[in-house]
């Protein structure tokens, strides 16, 4: 499972405060902790007004790179900002994110064409978030044409089928599961990702919904997720689910992660 | 329990299957349609307050609003023209460049449940579209702008300025969305801001009266 550590994000109130107060130690510490907890990428999202977003991102990325070699996930709703922030990273990481909205893909794909950079792509376009699985798959097809045009191999893409909140969904996660299953059948190498917590918006005791969602989605092909790597309960469940899905011979990964204290630490 | 109380409780608990029958019964008993409508509006106000105290959750608010909608459908033919929109008109939309609709829809639903006639312009709405809608509805009481991205906040600012420059001066401007703060609301000259849909309905009511 590819874990994109979500904690350095200005939309989290405690992080917004740290960014506003220039609390460098707090940010470095969270970068280090997420890296030690086994994050594959460390997401960095400023969530400040656009005029200071780039300088804030640069500052945040450098703080993360001070303490860890874990690659960065450059997170901004603006493709232009993502494209510029790539330059601050010492090694290839993850662009988070593009979609088929506007010219986002054309801004980002050429820059990462011949690099090791990976990219999150949302299945939305100029019409917003398509309602049906079928329409989302049409957006996906258009996206893959672009990827092919810029020579971005499927294994460098993390497709986000756009999970919406469960409490207003009419069919649970059936639509998402269908979208993911069809994508994986077409491109076995491609990554499927999503935010672990979008699903539980506006519900009580959200952690149960988040965990159940991750487990069910992993069974449908989810192999990448934006979540809190310090949430040891979730991490334990992820390792266990991978083993149950036959992706962990002799449960060696599960045992090693346990021994490393990533979950159920006594 | 009186029929009116029963209707109120049915909306509050979101029992949408029962509401049509209850409203029809109440009308058959000769109860005043406006009184029935107001009992449903009251029920939604109670739900809104409970939501703000975290006693109920968004889905419960949704089923309550849906229940009310069904009840209003039965009432409509009986209500005198105009009586169904006791608080006036509210124009709402998500700003240009932003395609998010879930939060905006919820706010529209709650404002409608509070007794407004809601004109929902959808998502990705330009300043021009807002201005045209205001022009077409010069009696509008509330204009509500939604934005869900830090990147579309400048767009909201622009639209707020345009809307405030409209020759129509009958309305108050309210804004909301994940990245919005009271500070930002003050900056763009909005008359109000709330963090959630229930608060938006209360605010619209307060500003329109």
TrEMBL record, chain A:
<dbReference type="GO" id="GO:0008705">
    <property type="term" value="F:methionine synthase activity"/>
</dbReference>
<comment type="similarity">
    <text>Belongs to the vitamin-B12 dependent methionine synthase family.</text>
</comment>
<dbReference type="InterPro" id="IPR050554">
    <property type="entry name" value="Met_Synthase/Corrinoid"/>
</dbReference>
<dbReference type="InterPro" id="IPR011005">
    <property type="entry name" value="Dihydropteroate_synth-like_sf"/>
</dbReference>
<protein>
    <submittedName>
        <fullName>Methyl corrinoid protein</fullName>
    </submittedName>
</protein>
<feature type="domain" description="Pterin-binding">
    <location>
        <begin position="1"/>
        <end position="259"/>
    </location>
</feature>
<dbReference type="GO" id="GO:0042558">
    <property type="term" value="P:pteridine-containing compound metabolic process"/>
</dbReference>
<dbReference type="GO" id="GO:0032259">
    <property type="term" value="P:methylation"/>
</dbReference>
<keyword id="KW-0808">Transferase</keyword>
<keyword id="KW-0489">Methyltransferase</keyword>
<dbReference type="GO" id="GO:0005829">
    <property type="term" value="C:cytosol"/>
</dbReference>
<dbReference type="InterPro" id="IPR000489">
    <property type="entry name" value="Pterin-binding_dom"/>
</dbReference>
<dbReference type="Pfam" id="PF00809">
    <property type="entry name" value="Pterin_bind"/>
</dbReference>
From TrEMBL, chain B:
<feature type="domain" description="B12-binding">
    <location>
        <begin position="87"/>
        <end position="209"/>
    </location>
</feature>
<dbReference type="InterPro" id="IPR003759">
    <property type="entry name" value="Cbl-bd_cap"/>
</dbReference>
<dbReference type="InterPro" id="IPR036724">
    <property type="entry name" value="Cobalamin-bd_sf"/>
</dbReference>
<dbReference type="GO" id="GO:0050667">
    <property type="term" value="P:homocysteine metabolic process"/>
</dbReference>
<dbReference type="GO" id="GO:0046653">
    <property type="term" value="P:tetrahydrofolate metabolic process"/>
</dbReference>
<keyword id="KW-0479">Metal-binding</keyword>
<dbReference type="GO" id="GO:0008705">
    <property type="term" value="F:methionine synthase activity"/>
</dbReference>
<dbReference type="GO" id="GO:0005829">
    <property type="term" value="C:cytosol"/>
</dbReference>
<dbReference type="GO" id="GO:0031419">
    <property type="term" value="F:cobalamin binding"/>
</dbReference>
<keyword id="KW-0170">Cobalt</keyword>
<feature type="domain" description="B12-binding N-terminal">
    <location>
        <begin position="1"/>
        <end position="87"/>
    </location>
</feature>
<dbReference type="InterPro" id="IPR006158">
    <property type="entry name" value="Cobalamin-bd"/>
</dbReference>
<dbReference type="InterPro" id="IPR036594">
    <property type="entry name" value="Meth_synthase_dom"/>
</dbReference>
<dbReference type="InterPro" id="IPR050554">
    <property type="entry name" value="Met_Synthase/Corrinoid"/>
</dbReference>
<dbReference type="GO" id="GO:0046872">
    <property type="term" value="F:metal ion binding"/>
</dbReference>
<dbReference type="Pfam" id="PF02607">
    <property type="entry name" value="B12-binding_2"/>
</dbReference>
<dbReference type="Pfam" id="PF02310">
    <property type="entry name" value="B12-binding"/>
</dbReference>
<protein>
    <submittedName>
        <fullName>Dimethylamine corrinoid protein</fullName>
    </submittedName>
</protein>
